[in-house]
Specification:
Layout: E1 2-10, E2 37-39, H1 46-56, H2 69-79, E3 95-98, E4 102-104, E5 109-112, E6 131-135, E7 138-142, E8 156-158, E9 164-165, E10 171-180, E11 187-196, E12 201-208, E13 217-221, E14 226-234, H3 239-244, E15 252-254, E16 268-272, E17 281-284, E18 287-290, E19 303-306, H4 309-316, H5 319-322, E20 329-330
């Protein structure tokens, strides 16, 4: 098994979709709300990156999907038979594992700012003074270091020096206007695309079987299939150890998004979390199928202080999810 650093650099504005839409005032009055303004996620999901890698590593590619049985077998041995589904165990052929997505500049790797950061500090400064209170769920922590006016942290932690880099220093936004042409949805709509500023790339570590040697190339991601240049170099993954240098003892930091039940909160003294939405999609014979289940994973950057490390580990552990960079957390 070999580990490679894969860097993805967009060559144009991109759009990563989600389940959220923004509505213009009064649109609800007509019954079904009209979609007016939608905004791209800044960072590709783990399943999006997995899909790009699976396609890149296909030994046989055909635009008409007309594969012989032998060709199907070749492809399945290389990249598996299916993409990620939270509740179904899958393997991905010669792709053994991928890390959570991060950002990379010339100086450092950057990961989502831990949400226990005291906003306003230019370098990472976590809450350190906790008090206890007894509740119906047992002992809980709270801290007066949290400033409700400032809210919770955002941006990215630069691992080389602990600096907090805000999103507007990494991403820019591009708004494009379109026209709904269907009888049901007449009118204009706006889509806000994202773009990385010069000097930044998305990164992910990929563990591959020795006989699969990746080559640089172009992959197409997101709605509209924006072009990304992808490059590989063999390199050990040391990100977890670099993150640990900044974490308080017994604090679990979510490097990747976390699929977990709500009971995890009962097993923790303290947490600061955000949630996202996730829906599985599958594609075969050029047809996209949308799964009915909508998941709400805990977002990367969230933190927990578990009451019992082993109990937390049992709740948060998922071999299926961690295989593609979900459910990856770090704790000293």
């Amino acid at each position: 098994m070999k580990t490679y650093l894969a860097l993805l650099k967009p060559t144009e504005p991109y759009f990563f979709g989600n389940e959220k839409t923004f509505l213009y005032p009064g649109s609800e009055a007509g019954g079904t709300p009209n979609r007016y303004f939608i905004r791209s996620e800044a960072v590709p999901s783990q399943s999006t990156v997995l899909g790009a890698l699976r396609y890149l590593f296909l030994p046989v590619k055909k635009s008409d999907w007309n594969y012989s049985d032998a060709e199907k077998k070749q492809n399945e041995e290389a990249v598996g038979t299916s993409g990620f589904e939270p509740e179904t165990e899958h393997t991905y052929g010669k792709i053994s594992k991928i890390s959570p997505v991060f950002l990379k500049n010339e100086a450092s790797i950057l990961v989502p700012t831990p949400l226990d950061h005291m906003v306003g500090n230019k370098t990472y400064k976590p809450f350190s003074q906790y008090k206890t209170v007894e509740t119906s769920d047992g002992t809980q922590y709270y801290t007066e270091e949290y400033d409700t006016k400032e809210g919770i942290a955002s941006g990215y932690l630069q691992l080389s020096d602990g600096a907090i880099v805000e999103e507007n220093q990494i991403f820019k936004r591009v708004v494009r206007t379109g026209i709904n042409r269907t009888a049901e949805n007449k009118g204009f709509f706006k889509k806000e695309y994202a773009m990385l500023l010069e000097g930044y790339s998305f990164g992910v570590y990929v563990e591959l079987e020795d006989d699969l040697v990746p080559a640089d190339g172009i992959v197409f991601l997101g709605q509209g299939k924006s072009a990304f240049a992808i490059s590989f170099r063999e390199e050990a993954n040391c990100v977890a150890e670099d993150i640990k240098k900044y974490l308080q003892k017994d604090v679990a930091y979510c490097w990747g998004d976390l699929f977990v039940s709500a009971s995890v909160y009962q097993e923790c003294y303290f947490s600061v979390t955000k949630t996202k939405t996730y829906r599985a999609y599958s594609k075969w014979n050029n047809r996209v199928t949308k799964a009915s289940t909508l998941y709400k994973p805990v977002a990367a950057g969230s933190i927990f202080i578990p009451k019992d490390k082993e109990a937390f580990k049992k709740l948060a552990e998922s071999t299926n999810a961690s295989r593609i960079g979900y459910n990856v957390w770090i704790m000293n």
